[in-house]
Predict the 3D structure of the following.
Amino acid sequence: MKLQPYLSQSVPRSQLNQRLIVYYVIVCDDDGAVVIPQDLLAFVAEEGAEHERMESFIVGEVERGAKLPGLYPMNADTKARYEAWKKK
């Protein structure tokens, strides 16, 4: 899967009779596209990376035979195992 980021040209928006130019980053892959306002890009990138790590941990746990309750959403025990796993 290849991600294709694209910084849009200005997108005019009208608010209270004032013209506001907002920039968006569009990221797409084979499954679809996401439009992210530029001012949220750092937050989305950081949270997205953390979510991917968490999903990888959960998939690994399921592949080893763990049951989903307590994994998703994580309970305290699973969170502790996840934090230890991230340090490896």
About this structure: Residues 4-87 form one domain.
